[in-house]
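Morning, I've got a small favour to ask if you have a moment. I've been staring at a protein lately and its backbone has me curious. You're getting the sequence in one-letter code plus the fold written as tokens. I've dropped the whole record in just underneath, so have a look:
=====
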Amino acid sequence: MNVLITGGLGFIGLALTRALLAGGHRVSVLDDGSTAPGAHDQAADAARLTPGPAPPCFRGDVADPGIGTVFDAVRPEAVIHLAARASVVESLREPLACTRVNVCGTVNVLQHSLACGVRRFVFASTGGALYGESPFGPMSETAPAAPVSPYGASKAAAEAYVGAMSRSGAIRCTVLRLGNVYGPAPAAAAAPGVVAAFARAMLAGRRPVIYGDGLAERDFVHIDDVVEAHRLALGMTGDDVFNIASGRARTVREVFDAVAAAAGYEGEPEFAPPRPGELRISRLDVGWARRELGWRARVPFARGVARTVASMRAPVEVAAPGEPAGIADPGRGLHGNAP
């Protein structure tokens, strides 16, 4: 299948690009190069970490109407839309910028997808930030959206447009509401989220910071499992929405302890006030994805954390042509995501 991935140089995007190429798909990438501190180096990572020739990489802003030239050049059969401003904290500071990329950018990508006859559209959304607080049990896909941040609101709005296009029959759409994605990344600085933040601090001999009392709960899902969910979504024939998570929430303190065990860190965290817009409890029900998508999380949390820490100690291995790339301790990773 000929696939265009927006945000293809991000955390999830690079891992997904590599996996789809290894699976025989044709892949092109559209990215604005702003996904990580080493964004300019990530184009080199794309070439180095994919089997065979590097995929075509187009620089562009998803909210720019001019990206139609990319669609004309690629003529994709499927689009996986990952590009987003994914920080809850930044969305509170710059809600308009968040809306421009996450809402207008999604509508723009949808419009160009329709214009060039895309058959399958996969949208990476958010679980926790969209549902809001879930103190009484895991949230299913039928739960109402109740975001507490502009980031969550922007994803809810974007989903509304994707759903409307899907129900109109104009395009087949699958929405994946992701938990907190973690795992190894091609560059340690590019790995997002609290697992990587804790590991970076511990390996550098610094005290990691926990915002709040450490009892906030999140559902963490490994990058390898997230990539597999996107791969399965490409093969769907209908339209649907799925929570993609482990199905088990963990406290931030539990995460700290798991990373400390993997890193050999014996110190205590530094506690800071909770940040505005961040949830206290986020729990996701993954039963629908198991039944209808044939997906479940397979990487155990302790193993995934160990792989992440190991990847931040050791350089990424370069795969031989035609072989999947890996790291010294097997695993892989990619995309920023908020809870």
Observations:
- The longest strand covers residues 120-126.
- DSSP finds twelve helices and twelve strands in the chain.
- Confidence is low (pLDDT under 50) at residues 315-339.
